[in-house]
Amino acid sequence: KSLSIPFILDSGAAEISISKTVEKQLLANGSITENNYLSNGLYRVADGRIVTQRRVLLKKVKVGQFTVRNVAASIGGDNTPLLLGKNFLDKFSNWSINNSEKTLELKI
Q1: Is 42 left (phi over 0), alpha (psi -120 to 50) or beta?
Q2: Which residue, 7, 28, 61, 85, has most beta carbons within 10 Å?
Q3: How far is the CA of 48 from the CAs of 32, 51, 77, 78, 86, in angstroms?
Q4: 17, β-bridge pairs
């Protein structure tokens, strides 16, 4: 019932962003159901446009030893990059990037 996929850390993204492809995989394995969908959201993209995207509540997102529960994700197109956004990072009291180790450091 889990899906292991790489994300890009993007502290400038308001929410986690997944692709339609990942959405289909999560539906197929039962990680999300129709009951997990939220109201659509408006997002400003890098070129300044504002787009509407569907949203879903992810039951849990695990990064390393940390699990965050009930976190919203926007759903982009099939080739949308998978972004680990600010709403995930905000679940922690502190987070930082260790440039020499190339790691994300999270503190509850």
Answers
A1: beta
A2: 85
A3: 31, 10, 18, 21, 19
A4: 74, 83
Of 78, 104, 77, residue with least CA distance to 11: 104
* Alpha-carbon span 30 to 21, nearest angstrom: 14
Nearest to 80 by CA among 3, 12, 11, 16: 16
CA distances from 32 to 11, 21, 61, 104 (A): 24, 13, 12, 26
